Amino acid sequence: MASRRTYTVLIALFAVLATTSIVVTGVFTKLLAGDPRVLVVTMQQDAGQSARELLKRDCGSLPGVSVVPDRGNPDPDVQGRFPVRFKIGGATPQQEAALESCIDRHSSLVRGILTEGDR
Question: pLDDT confidence of 119, banded at 50, 70, 90?
Answer without folding.
Answer: low
